[in-house]
Every structure is written in C-alpha cells, then in structure tokens.
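During the reporting period, our protein records have gained a structure token line. One record among many is quoted in full directly below:
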Amino acid sequence: MAVRDQRLASNIRYNHTMIIVLTSLANPIEAESLAEKIVSAKLAACVQILPQITSVYIWEGQMQNESESLLLIKTLPEKYDELQAFITANHSFDVPEIVAIDAENVSEPYLQWMRAVLGSEFPL
C-alpha cells in the first residue's frame, strides 16, 4: 500500500498550476458555442458543460430563478486575464459570472497535457 501511496503522491502537483474558471450562460446552445470559442482560441485545454443548473439571485431588485448552463473551464493561471476579457466580450449577460478557483492537486500527466495543448512556454 505504501508504494501505491508514494506513486500517487508523486503524480500530483501542489503549487496551484491550474485553475478552473466558472461561468454560466442562458442555455446549452450558448454554452457550447462559447466553450468551442474558448478552446479554439487556446484559452483553455478543456471546457465541460453542465447543461442544466438553476441559479437563484437578485437582479435589478427582483428575485430571479433561472435555468442556466454552467461551464467548467480548465486552464493555466497565466491565461486568466485573456480568458476573462474573452468571456466578457463574448457573453450574452450584462454581468457574467467569471470565477477562478485554484486547483490544489493536479495529476502530473494531466498538467503536462494541458501545457502541451495550450503551448505554455513556462517550465513544469
């Protein structure tokens, strides 16, 4: 068991080398369109679409309860500023949700794949 645990530990990065950016859109069609644009622009290696979530929030003084689609955008920290500007420019909402979460533990093979896909010049 100790060998397996050691192998697992050596396959994980602990220095916040990846972020997951969240943004929600009005529907799955808009979500898929934005996801494809983000990946095509090499601003993320992968975007997952959760096609139906419910968001409850206050907008212009009124309680809203809306069906939306959520994007989980997997990228590198150095891509964040450009990604944020891209989402803002291509989003249908007046005030889009753009939230970045540090990924504490990322498997080394996945991180290497992300860096290869995104053409990162930063060393591992």
Observations:
- The CA atoms of residues 8 and 63 lie 46 Å apart.
- Helices lie at 2-10, 28-40, 80-90, 108-118.
- Residues 1-10 have pLDDT under 50 and may be disordered.
